[in-house]
Design brief:
heterodimer; A: mainly alpha; two-stranded antiparallel ribbon; globular; B: alpha/beta; six-stranded mixed beta sheet; four-stranded antiparallel beta sheet; 10 helices; 10 strands; about 25% strand
């Protein structure tokens, strides 16, 4: 089997599975797992925002939870305080996350490596403590609950996320759209500019790339991805809480990305799936399930520095080479005569 | 003579107590290959770093074709048409050879499209293919640049300078670490480039310097020790003194004298 047909087959299989989830999963196990898969999709988008920065621009951010939190609170406050309907609240969540990313990015992307990582943590801590202390507005750690407005009406039929199947498909469509946008971005001229900066920022500036502005654009785009996932998660949980802005949440996105494969399109999805499935299965039997997370992260860093998807790509390249070797015309080889 | 390509006025750069470039006023005319030579620590690379904006001078000014570029940031200076290679070869190691050239070409534009496919750009694609042919790396186009041999990386760096269509090219020891065959390939390429581009080259290999330079400037301790034609430099007593203790170069000076 060639690499291409294998990959097309896998993509088709994954797509068919994702579309069949609302019927397949309840038939096989429990309806509960549909909501777990919905959650996986949302969190994989959050991990993708860390991946865009770390895997494609070379900026290790431990502060993406801040923009996730802004996405959440944009939706929750939009509905609860301002009485917005579904789409304006969604828009408010995303734009406030991007605005926050712009403001902190202006300072953060001047720095690189550990200094950048530290300043992203600092920003996220500042706003975490602000959110916790402004209890009347944010509800602090308890958060604020809101009731879902309908997504849209068609004649007399009202579509709302209270229907789990519709909610699942809504999340699937939004997440797929974001992954598609990211795919386009990575393969665009701007995406190659990002890769150049990740590889060698000094050289990038010498060929005429404005490293600061490109990093800032990437930072705001990552804020967009985190903001969308935060907004989706607010709709999914019907609430927003300051606890999701804590930097530990950011750290999880980094771990999921690294184990799944930083700098690969679907690495964050693979990593997020792995860890959330482990959490859901193990946590009911054993409270120290985060030990498994730590162990897997260590194993990945040592044995698969490019993550699970990186390992897979390595096998595919070897498969390619073997194909090329077997399909090439027979060549004269030196053989020792008996 | 028209406006010099590159001119500095009393340029000074200090690192702590060390004055790397000391009150340097230099003027390089267009249409010629200039070589800057001098013992280690003479301030040659610091001079390049000042011109390309990687460092800001403590005092003095830099003019590129009459335009004051003092204190401009590296990408701004690059877009004006000053490109350089680095002493320690510097490419994008995880991008393949063709993509290294591709992004270098694209970086000339102010705007990089965020969502259009990079593969659909026939103009850039063609230029990349031409450049790959010119530098003789067409067979290695799909290889990550980090896996190339040292000489091939150096050729790729020259290719990256080429595809960006510079009007002034600064080469920092381009043949350092190359095999003799690679060196002559690179020298031929530089001579070829010099027909259309103004070139300033820092080089330790005197064969290369005397092979391609029209003018030579000798730096010592951040200041001009001598400047002139290769023949004049070879016969300059002060230059020979500056190189004392470096018998290899001195032998060459002897040879050049008797040639």
């Amino acid at each position: 089997m060639t690499r291409r047909s294998l990959e097309i087959g896998m993509a088709a299989g994954a797509a068919a599975f994702l579309i069949a989830v609302p019927w397949l999963i309840p038939a096989l196990t429990d309806h509960f797992w549909v909501s777990v898969i919905t959650e996986i999709l949302i969190w994989s988008l959050f991990a993708a925002s860390a991946n865009l920065l770390f895997g494609y621009v070379g900026l290790l951010s431990f502060g993406q939870a801040l923009y996730f939190g802004f996405g959440m609170y944009g939706v929750a406050l939009g509905i609860d305080h301002f009485g917005l309907s579904f789409w304006p609240a969604f828009g408010l969540g995303i734009t406030s996350a991007m605005a926050m990313a712009l403001v902190s990015g202006v300072f953060a992307v001047r720095l690189s490596w550990h200094y950048f990582a530290i300043i992203t943590v600092v920003f996220s801590l500042i706003f975490y403590f602000l959110a916790v202390s402004m209890k009347p507005l944010t509800g602090g750690d308890d958060g604020i609950n809101f009731s879902l407005p309908p997504v849209f009406r068609m004649g007399r039929t009202v579509f709302s996320l209270t229907d789990p199947t519709f909610q699942y498909f809504f999340v699937l469509v939004v997440v797929s759209l974001c992954f598609f946008l990211m795919y386009r971005l990575i393969n665009s001229p701007l995406g190659k500019g990002f890769l150049a900066i990740r590889d060698n920022d000094l050289r990038a500036s010498l060929i005429g790339l404005n490293v600061y502005v490109l990093r800032l654009i990437a930072f705001v785009m990552a804020g967009f991805l985190a903001g969308v996932s935060g907004a989706l998660f607010a709709f999914f949980g019907r609430y927003a809480s300051a606890s999701y802005m804590f930097y530990q949440v950011s750290g999880e996105a980094v771990v999921w990305t690294i184990v799944g494969g930083a700098g690969t399109m679907f690495g964050p999805l693979v990593g997020t799936t792995l860890f959330i499935v482990i959490r859901e299965i193990v946590s009911s039997h054993w409270e120290h399930h985060s030990l498994i997370v730590g162990l897997l992260a260590i194993l990945a860093v040592i044995f698969a520095p490019k993550g699970i998807v990186g390992l897979w790509n390595g096998w595919m390249i070897r498969l390619d080479e073997r194909d090329a070797a077997t399909s090439a015309p027979p060549r004269l080889t030196l053989q020792a005569k008996p | 003579m028209s406006e010099p390509v590159l001119r500095t006025e009393r340029l000074t750069k200090r690192f702590g107590g060390l004055t790397a470039v000391d009150d340097l006023s230099i003027s390089l005319a267009g249409g010629r290959v200039h070589a800057i030579i001098g013992p280690n620590g003479a301030g040659k690379t610091t001079f390049f770093n000042l011109v390309t904006g990687l460092l800001g001078p403590d005092s003095g000014r830099i003019f590129f074709r009459g335009r004051d570029i003092t204190g401009c940031r590296p990408h701004v200076i690059s877009r004006l048409g000053i490109k350089r290679t680095l002493q320690v070869k510097s490419v994008f190691p995880e991008l393949n050879v063709a993509d290294n050239l591709w992004i270098t070409r694209q970086a000339r534009h102010r705007f990089l499209h965020p969502f259009r496919s990079a593969a659909r750009d026939p103009e850039t694609k063609l230029r990349v293919e031409q450049t790959l042919e010119q530098i003789g790396l067409a067979d290695l186009a799909a290889r990550p640049a980090g896996t190339l041999s040292y000489g091939d990386v150096a050729m790729l760096e020259i290719g990256m300078a080429l595809i960006s269509e510079p009007s002034l090219l600064l080469l920092d020891e381009p043949t350092c670490g190359m095999s003799p065959a690679e060196t002559s390939r690179a020298v031929a390429k530089i001579r070829d480039l010099a027909r259309t581009i103004d070139i300033v080259i820092i080089e330790h290999d005197m064969d290369v310097v005397f092979g391609i330079a029209d003018d030579i400037t000798v730096l010592a301790q951040g200041a001009i020790l001598a400047s002139g034609s290769p023949a004049a430099i070879a016969g300059d007593e002060r230059v020979r003194e500056a190189y004392l203790g470096r018998p290899e170069d001195e032998d060459f000076m002897e040879e050049a004298l008797h040639a």
